[in-house]
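Chapter summary example: a protein plus guanine.
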Amino acid sequence: MSLKRQSEPFGIRCAYATLNDNPFLAGDENSLIFESDGLVVIDQGLIHAAGHYNSLRPLFPELEIVQYQNALLVPGFIDTHVHYPQLPMIGSCGEQLIDWLTRYTFETEQRFCDIGYARRVADHFLDACLDAGTTTAAVYCTVHPESVDAFFAASLERGLRMLAGKVLMDRNAPAALLDTAQTGYDQSEQLIRRWHGQHRLSYAITPRFAPTSTPAQLEAAGALRSAYPDVLVQTHLSENPQEVAWVKSLFPERRHYLDVYAHYGLTGPRCIFGHALHLCESEWRMLSDSGSSIAHCPTSNAFLGSGLFDLETARSCQPNMRLGLATDVGAGTTLSMLKTMGAAYNVAQLRGNALSPVKAFHMATYGAAQALHLEERIGRIAAGLEADLVILDLQATPVIEQRMAQCSDIADTLFVQMILGDERSVRAVYSAGKSVKPAV
Ligand code: GUN
Ligand code: ZN
């Protein structure tokens, strides 16, 4: 694969939009920055400066400029929960969570003992992420360490900031997909030592979910977290009522589902929980008091009939909750964060609330970076952050083009993109200042 490198420093002249605060706290208007004629200066993979073209240009008279018209420059999208090995089985029909796992997922994941196959799927997955404008994701691999090696090698080759981990699973799955508490710990530790902190890669300790780990394995995962406290922990929480009942029967001594994770030291900062749909009051409080993060997976929750995420309660118990959007492919039906924002809007409407485009945009960029504790590096257009950027084509389709002619402000522009946009809206993508999806 050959990547075009713009010689640095260089500038992108384009309208741009970015968050600089949490709109759930500060309000939409105080959180969004919009420059109708912006200049973003990129040097050594970082954003060196960003502002109005006329103000900034005189400070960089020699700067080579790439200009995009009828376009909007935004931070690269961040997917806070996705399974790369499930891309081959996306859109598998007819089941809810447990049957879907048994019938499709566990069958598919067995193929990832083959590192060549894993690498081919990782390549497809990353190319599809970039096509959708996603530059960072928190990724589940399979139980096989090879699946992690393949994924990180493919990410490294593209220079992407990615988080990923080997799934830990020592019961209630086919024998070919099981590790043990000890091998799961040892393999995860080797992978941390091999990959964590290499270039822009981070490891994520990944117990799949409580039903597929014995108490001994959850204890080992907690020990691993204590040994490597800057490593993310990712898992699933309370996605489906049948799953919640199963957890209750497997861990009768625990107060509720989240208490299982808390008991083994798997809650708190840098612990991110996918779904979080069927929670009691005490679980909401525990999530917020512990400083844990949530990955809201709207297309997946609809596809598996899992439920409607309660964003209002999440925000009312902690307006500052670290909460990002996620595709959760292969239960999720798209890798597009634009479509995922649109799906989050639909879910909020079904619960009787309208989600503003600024808040949805936050949960796919700055809020998602906060959910992964990466807000010092990515998620905004601001000096010092990594230059992961997406150019949205504001006239990507005839329907979008005619609707854009009616747009009066940036909030409406963002809304049109999230309701009508998809991969066709992504004209170009930069990762650490490097063009990874060339402009068309
Ligand atoms: N719960 C445990 N494993 C999975 C998975 O792979 N996908 C989803 N959506 N939920 C899960
Ligand atoms: Zn998932």
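Key point: The mean pLDDT is 97.
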